[in-house]
Design brief:
Length: about 400
């Protein structure tokens, strides 16, 4: 069998390595069991999955980069070559570490990874996919062969580290609730958190803000459009007209968040039926463009009407909403930080229930307990506050959970 020419792949690989810094490494790097044979890293577009792969190579193989290979599966090289052929080529040369980016762009990728696992059991593969949708849809086929991780956008804590302001440890929710006064005193003695919190809300969730600077919100709008145009069709056979309806729905909701959906009215506005409207809402939720708050723990197999709809993070508020309202920004921040560490549901009183146990109201400095008084395990998450008191907790501190 004739050998394949991998020169173009290695050229791209070395170029990427040269451009990668390991000065700041995302939280997920420390949580991954890198000894697993197949590792999948999922997450929304733009949160830094590609950088994480390249940092792993740079930190582990700095003495000999030829022990590994990074490839993006949207590379034109794969139009005339197969992934199996590439793995065979690497295996013959003793290369046992393959890092695959944009894996969802390779046709029948799940079956291909299964075959590689069977034929080359010593080959270690780490892959990412920008499309949360397609990988979620396919992961059942790989469930016994791989270890999956989900990468969120940057927390407020990570933003401070990324900016070179402070390197501080993450907190558990129990630590935060029981020791928030001491924790806030310790952090604020080191960092003027309020000087940076508003900047984080505007542009701190996606690491690429440093590259884009003034054009960051434009890039973020383009990212949302790419998710709908490229990722949604990966799991749903939607026509062009339906994709436009999805974009219209996103903009309708962005203009009204926090959006309390009337499914029939929303269906009329985008000219579709109730089932399709619910399906689109849950697709946008899985894509991390929206966050649906339901009465019971959310299930993608039972599409119940959400009680409230928010955008996926505060940066999206500034990118998609014409006049972001401060109360909604606060709630969106709170939900975006808590969603990564627990389940969020809608209570009969208050704003949010976390893990079916902790009740929260989110608001400004004048917020009081009137709506949730006498309810056990109830708390206020308060903006414009450096240090809390009792069950009043500074809102910014919830940005230290990751």
């Amino acid at each position: 069998m004739a050998d394949i020419n991998t020169e173009a792949l290695y050229e791209a690989y070395y170029s990427k390595i040269n451009q990668t810094s390991t000065e700041f490494v995302r939280y997920l790097y420390r949580e991954i069991n890198w000894d697993a044979n197949i590792i999948g890293i999922l997450g929304a577009r733009g949160v830094g999955k590609t950088t994480l792969l390249l940092q792993r190579i740079k930190l582990l193989f700095a003495d000999n980069y030829e022990q590994a290979l990074y490839v993006s599966l949207d590379n034109l090289w794969f139009n005339t070559n197969s992934l199996i052929d590439l793995v065979r080529h690497l295996n013959m040369r003793g290369v046992r570490n393959l890092f695959l980016d944009e894996v969802h762009k390779y046709k029948n990728w799940t079956q291909t990874l299964k075959n590689i696992s069977d034929i080359y059991p010593r080959m270690k593969i780490v892959y990412t996919g920008s499309s949360m949708l397609e990988i979620d849809h396919s992961k059942a086929d790989m469930s016994r062969r791989q270890t999956l991780y989900t990468m969120a956008g940057m927390s407020f804590r990570e933003y401070l580290e990324f900016e070179g302001i402070a390197q501080l440890p993450s907190l558990s929710l129990d630590q935060l609730l029981s020791r928030h006064i001491n924790l806030a005193l310790d952090i604020t003695a080191k960092v003027d958190v309020m000087a940076y919190f508003d900047d984080y809300l505007r542009h701190g969730y996606y690491p690429f803000y440093k590259e884009e600077k003034r054009d960051y919100l434009i890039r973020l709008r383009e990212t949302a459009k790419t998710v709908i145009d490229n990722d949604v069709p990966a799991i749903e056979n939607f026509e062009f007209e339906t994709l436009n309806k999805i974009k219209k729905m996103l903009m309708i909701i962005a203009a009204q968040v926090p959006f309390v959906p009337n499914i029939n009215n929303l269906s009329e506005e985008i000219a579709t039926n109730r089932n399709q409207t619910l399906k689109i809402l849950y697709i946008l939720d899985k894509a991390k463009l929206l966050f649906l708050i339901t009465e019971k723990e959310k299930s993608y197999h039972s599409l119940v009407k959400p009680e409230k709809v928010l955008l996926g993070n505060p940066n999206l508020m500034y990118a998609l909403a014409s006049m972001p309202e401060i109360g909604t920004i606060r709630e969106t921040f709170f939900v975006s930080q808590l969603a990564e560490i627990g389940s969020i549901t809608s209570p009969s009183k208050g704003d949010y229930v976390i893990d079916g146990k902790y009740l929260f109201e989110v608001g400004g400095a004048r917020k009081n307990f009137n709506q949730i008084k006498d309810i056990p395990n109830s708390y206020l998450a308060i903006d414009d506050t450096l240090v809390g008191r009792g069950n009043k907790i500074p809102l910014w501190l919830f940005g230290f959970l990751k």
